[in-house]
Amino acid sequence: MAGNNAIKEVLGKFKGKVLFDEPMSCHTSLCVGGRADALVMIEDEDQLTQIVGGLSEGKINYLPVGNLTNIIVRDGGYRGVILLMKGLTEIRYKQLPDGGHYIRAEAGAALSKLVGLTLTNELTGLEFCTGIPGSVGGALWMNAGAYGKEMKDVVSSLSLLTAEGRKINMKRQDISFSYRRAILPADAIILSGEFKLEKGVSGQIKEKIGEIMRLRQDKHPLEYPNAGSIFKNLPGMPAGRIIEELGLKGKCCGDAQVSLKHANFIVNKSRATAADILTLISLIQDMAKKEKGINLETEVVIIGEN
Hints:
Elements: H1 4-11, E1 17-23, E2 35-41, H2 45-57, E3 62-65, E4 71-73, E5 78-84, E6 91-95, E7 101-106, H3 111-120, E8 123-124, H4 136-141, E9 145-146, E10 149-150, E11 155-161, E12 167-171, E13 176-178, E14 181-183, E15 189-199, H5 202-219, H6 239-245, E16 252-253, E17 256-258, E18 266-268, H7 274-292, E19 301-303
């Protein structure tokens, strides 16, 4: 694996903001995580293409991320380069002559802005994304969903950057989706997604968005740093209900706690470490397996060194 000098040599050739030896606790929604060798603030697609090419040529590990809202970075940090897609935020609405309504959003755009644009243009179909704190790219990669709908239900195409540095487009019919995952070419990076939506009634769209936001505020522990749902739900068995039945609601390890509000959330009450959170995750998985014969699979992505 390439060392810090090799990373600095490669990244020194490109424009843009680079933070070396950067504590990821300053960037993750859980406020935990050790230092990454480098964190690059991606400004546009061309810069991303050049940097990925340089990192690939130097055999340097890299990971594209959105808002870091569903990622746990271990306390030992990440050996390689994290590519924060903050600059890829353009969102555009277009109406085709055949009456179709489409929104194209770049990977770094916040889902909240995407939902806001649908309301402005009286488009329905993306209300289920209300209150999800992530980015468009992250939501597409993990096939995010809520209230009976998923990204696969509204996406019409994806623009990708391949590991070889080529930009390709994939139509919806050529993309396979599973629960909380889009099946894409190996090491491909999502650049943008296009969504096909329907014309709706402004008042009804606004009412639905408000209803979902109220549900999230009532059910989710938004007052503490968290990474959203920790575990994937099982068919007919929400993970939160399983954890509550195990008697683990409120369980603590250091300053990490299984939320009293929603048991499928782990919150950072003050100074939790990634190790505290991962200890709780392992405890829940072990008890679910031992007492219920259930394998709970994490929905959050766990990266980095112990």
